[in-house]
Design a protein that fits this description.
Strand content: 15-25%
Strand order of the largest sheet: 6-5-4-3-7
Largest sheet: 5 strands, antiparallel
Radius of gyration: 27 Å
Structural class: alpha+beta
Mean pLDDT: 86
Number of strands: 11
Low-confidence stretches: none
Shape: elongated
Length: 333
């Protein structure tokens, strides 16, 4: 259960209690109401402590929450809670200027999906938000996103996303750039990732017995198939899965400490836009280092800097760069 989603369920349950005109609600009653609401939302018994209810009430009263005025009153020896204004509800709290700015930024970000296949529902939601909060205007666009709307395979994003969420086994027909004919495989989908303006699907390839990736623009056909879904291995965390590489391809090999000399006029650019999160900068020497497993994406990235970057070590990566440069030299000799 997502923590934020669970909190929202609790706030709404407490809100219903505090505005009720037909009951009295102390901490224990609020706790039971939250537990019942969580069970209805997630179909599982989730314990709610008294401490959690106190924290939720404090949050609802705070400026960071809903700025609710909650009365604490006694009836006998017991403390009860209610809204000072019987007509108050967190559902009626107006949007603050700060929240409005955040909403505008969110709508601006979501607009990048307009026009993409299977995202028609996004356009409807955005239109309703823009109308409800009077955010719709005739202003010119002030931000652009790198998104190739003509990229082959975008039409598969939604069905693949739904297959991941619903844990649906898929039959994939795929033809790589190097293959003469397509292959068909059984895939248990886990993750979608965008890199270099292309989308990639990661999942358990039954034939290989391992996690493999498929470029969406090379997938020719996707269809559901019967079979028991294989959950993602416990030791795989896609938030960390790509930490040791540049791009999406994880080759066999070990992490290498790669040192590069950068042209002085290009050094500030690379310093401010690191090649990899592990990048370390040596200002006096105009050098940088990264710790990654060498792969094709890394070599392509390093080659993109042309004569403004030289790989100093390790020798294995330096040799890879030299081989590519030799081939280039034949083209322009």
């Amino acid at each position: 259960m997502a923590q934020n989603k669970g909190a929202i369920v609790r706030y709404r349950a407490i809100d219903r209690c505090l505005r009720s005109k037909h009951g009295k609600y102390g901490i224990e009653e609020l706790r039971e109401a939250c537990a019942e609401a969580l069970y209805d939302a997630f179909s599982e018994r989730i314990s709610v402590s008294r401490r959690q209810i106190y924290d939720d009430l404090n949050h609802m009263e705070s400026n960071a929450g809903y700025r609710a005025e909650i009365e604490h009153y006694r009836d006998g020896k017991k403390m009860y809670y209610r809204y000072a204004d019987p007509n108050f509800s967190i559902e009626k709290v107006p949007v603050t200027p700060e929240e409005m700015d955040q909403l505008k930024e969110t709508i601006l970000m979501l607009n990048r999906f307009k026009g993409m296949p299977h995202f028609e529902w996004m356009e409807e939601i955005l239109s309703k938000l823009e109308d409800k909060f009077h955010l719709k205007g005739s202003e010119d666009s002030v931000i652009g996103f790198e998104q190739n709307m003509d990229l082959k395979g975008l039409e598969n994003i939604t069905p693949l996303f739904e297959a991941i969420v619903n844990k649906q086994v898929l039959k994939i027909r795929y033809k790589s750039f190097k293959a003469n004919k397509p292959i068909t495989c059984e895939l248990h989908p886990y993750y979608l990732k965008q890199y270099n303006n292309r989308w990639f699907l990661f999942g358990w390839n039954t034939e290989f017995g391992a996690i493999t990736n498929f470029a969406l623009d090379r997938i020719e056909e996707v269809s559901p198939m019967l079979g028991e879904y294989k959950p993602k291995p416990d030791d795989i965390d896609f938030d960390e899965y790509f930490d040791d590489i540049v791009g999406v391809t994880i080759p066999k090999g070990k992490v290498e400490h790669i040192v590069m000399r950068v042209a002085p006029d290009r050094y500030p650019y690379i310093k401010n836009k690191p090649l990899h999160p592990s990048q370390h900068n040596y200002d006096k020497e105009f050098r940088i280092s990264i710790d990654v497993i060498p792969n094709n994406e890394l070599i392509a990235l390093l080659l993109s800097f042309g004569s403004q970057m030289e790989v100093l070590e390790p020798q294995s990566v330096r040799d890879m760069m030299r081989d590519h440069v030799k081939t280039l030299n034949k083209f322009y000799k």
